[in-house]
Amino acid sequence: MKVIEKPSLVDSKIYIVADKLWKVALFGPDNFQAAVISHYVKTKNKKLKKSAIGFAKELLTGYGEEDEVSNVVAEQALQYLIKFNVDIPFPTPAKPKFKFIDLFAGIGGFRLAMQNLGGECVFSSEWDKEAQKTYYANFGEIPFGDITKEETKKWIPKEFDVLCAGFPCQAFSIAGKRGGFNDTRGTLFYDVAEIIKRHKPKAVFLENVKGLASHDKGRTLATILNVLREDLKYYVPEPEIVNAKYFGVPQNRERIFIVAFRKDMGVDKFKYPEQKKVTAAVEDILEKKIVNTKYYMSTQYFKTLVEHKARHESKGNGFGYEILNKEGVANAIVVGGMGRERNLVIDKRLKDFTPTTKIKGVVNREGVRRLTPRECARLQGFPDWYKVEGVVSDASAYKQFGNSVAVPAIQATAELVIEKIQKHLK
Known about the structure:
This protein is α/β, with parallel strands linked by helices. The chain has 13 helices and eleven strands.
């Protein structure tokens, strides 16, 4: 968010609002005030104005000699933020074609896809503080926090067209044979279903890990479909496992997609996008310049990886590191464990082997290195002007991209969803 120098008392107060907004959002225990303010600044939603002014007053009170900041100064501060909220990579389309909400938003993979199709995000929610930083840097908006709380749900606009959610996979306590709305209580899907029930969006787009299909012997997915179809009265075609590698990114990433349409939309058929051909390779996402030595393995750590793989191979297991064929596709990028070591590359351009981080041993001379966060971003279909460097640590970036959706696969599916409800959009 762009701010200017403070030539006057009012501008000084306004500057402080912007500064405090950032600090409260990213370093405070609760980002609630900042979420309201940033959503108002971003959407200019009149329903948020009164609360945004109130929170701005709270942030400003005590500055200078005044005991309390007036509504006028607080509103000027918000108008200032609106005026200068332009220095973001992914602004809302000038003439939005539809409205959507972004639940379990992560770093905005769903949002990128939907905005590319002309959508306006009118509400976002993500509890992870580091992901909030990345989201804010790219969209100029701080997501609301815990979506299970009523104080969060109440800020969702009454009307919007599409609900997007990449919710976690959790088991249900199923009382009946098929499982219904009440059986999902205590899980995050329950909160998604509750929001659908309250707001009745025209369409729903859910994403989850491939394992959801077989989770709890298939009962978890069966319950989700039953809730959507029987309890919420949506048309839900059979879900599909969609692989990102067929949509222009060189990553073997399979995820289950579930779409649903409100019955009055008149949709009775839906075909997921065809998965025909792999058109990209690992070499397409690799850095053109020599990368920092911190991404290269130390000799000692690489030796440990080799020994670990050999032990598993002797037992007939396929576990261990993997060096990618640059003409092929990468394994799915995942969080934790051996995730990054499953996507190593050989890059022998490095000439200066001086370590830039504390490592045991020396930098290996075989050219074995991890993918950089930017390369992981490309594997998920994020454009190069998506901000990550300097926003969060590499460790956080790896986690965020590992948890993200593959943007091109989401966009290809979302485009077909929007086509189905097009005539019902205002």
